[in-house]
Design brief:
The protein is α+β, with helices and mostly antiparallel strands and 202 residues long. The chain has three helices and 14 strands. The relative contact order is 0.13.
């Protein structure tokens, strides 16, 4: 009888341990499903040519998803502050024909100048060595110091860089600002903020 009681107690303890473990673990498939549900509701999602998700955004109100993180914003008269998990991560500060992307410490990441026929993107206040993104009749060119770096074609929801499919958009898009995706020197996360803000301004 004593042996039966001991076995009963051990069984109860084992079952309780299993339940606790199940509560505290989630499979990669569950995590991927949650990320997919977040991005499926966005205005635009962007993937690389292999279909791996890079990020996406809503435009009104702005919401950014990048690196499995959702950024929501608070609007001020001349700036947008973006928050993730209750902490301010990025800031966009506007001027009449430009804006700046800054990090949580207000350090400049990118300065974007808007012209009637192009945009320029640099990592410094003086706009030196800027990337110039300009549409032409049949293509979009990305140059730096007059040197052509990337030739971009947007065909429906496909973005080709130097004649090779590089990105897939969730829907057909026409704006030349998606050519910014081609610029390897800009982190993908930063591209989401720059493209979304440009689409709201151009």
């Amino acid at each position: 009888m004593r042996k039966i009681n001991i076995l009963f107690v051990l069984t109860v303890l084992l079952l309780a341990s299993c339940k606790t473990e199940n509560k505290n673990t989630s499979s990669p498939a569950e995590t991927a499903t949650e990320a997919s549900a977040t991005t499926n509701s966005l205005d635009v999602t962007i993937a690389n040519a292999d279909g791996a998700l890079i990020g996406g955004f809503d435009l009104s109100p702005i919401k950014i998803v990048a690196n499995n993180t959702t950024y929501t914003f608070k609007s001020k008269p001349d700036k947008h502050k973006f928050y993730a998990n209750g902490q301010m991560k990025y800031e966009i500060k506007f001027k009449e024909e430009s804006f700046k992307l800054r990090d949580a410490d207000s350090d400049l990441l990118w300065k974007i100048k808007i012209y009637p026929d192009k945009v320029k993107i640099s990592d410094n206040e003086e706009n030196e060595n800027a990337f110039e993104v300009r549409p032409y009749d049949d293509k979009i060119k990305v140059k730096r110091n007059e040197e052509e770096l990337y030739r971009v074609n947007i065909e429906g929801n496909s973005v080709k860089v130097n004649d090779t499919e590089a990105f897939k958009l969730s829907s057909n898009q026409q704006s030349y600002v998606y050519a910014i995706l081609a610029i390897d020197e800009i982190p993908n996360e930063h591209k989401m903020f720059i493209i979304a803000e440009l689409l709201n301004k151009i």
